[in-house]
Structures are given as C-alpha cells and as structure tokens.
C-alpha cells in the first residue's frame, strides 16, 4: 500500500479519535447519542462510557475519558504525519503510533460500542504490526 495512503489513513483515524475526545472534554455531561432502533439490543450508551456510567463517576471521569481519547488521537495524528515524513515526527512515528493505538484501545474499552469495532481493529493492527516489528528487530 502506498506510503501516502497509509499515512493519510493514520492521520484520519487520529482526527476521528481526537474529535471524540474534544466532544467528551468540552461537554462531559452531554446525554448519550441516539442510536438507530436496530441497535436497541446493545445495553450501553453511545457517546458515554459504560464503565463510568455503571460506577456513577460523573463528569470528572467523563473529562478524564475525553482526555484519553484526545491524547490517543493526537499521538495517532503525529505518528501518521511522521509516516508521511513530516519533520522530526518521522523518527518518532513508531512510538507515537504505538502509544496512540494502545491509548486508543484503553479509550475504546472504556467507551465500547459496536460502532467502534473498526477503530478496535485498526488499533489492534497498529499495535500488532509494531509489536512484530520490535520482536523481529531483537
């Protein structure tokens, strides 16, 4: 796959992840987003953390969750830009991508909803590919 396409997809994934974080940080008490009727079988809220809701942790925890999303997204954007060869980010791309994807998996675990399955697969692929890169480098 061409390097520009991969880098662009990584940056796009980072922007989407960051946007979720911005929404959670700027309005932590926002009600869950409405889901289509065919998703009524899913017990958890969309756009709110099932874990924070179940524990009744409130807005402070929701802001922390948003910061996790935001940090993951910014790291993914930086790693994607590094993949594209932008400045000093090129040397840091593997660390940024690995950290962003791992942090993204933490956010996805806290806020899991079936709509996020693609993000889970993307982050697992990033971590898996970087893990195998480290394993073969040794």
Describe this protein's structure.
The protein is mostly helical. The chain has one domain (3-28, 47-137). 72% of the residues lie in helices and 0% in strands. The protein has five helices and no strands. The protein has helices at residues 3-26, 50-55, 58-83, 89-110, 117-137. The longest helix has 26 residues, at 58-83. It is elongated, with a radius of gyration of 16 Å. The two termini are 26 Å apart. The relative contact order is 0.17.
Return the domain count.
1
Poorly predicted regions: none
β-strand amount = under 5%
Specify the number of helices.
5
Helices and strands: which structural class?
Answer: mainly alpha
Features:
single chain, 138 residues, mainly alpha, 5 helices
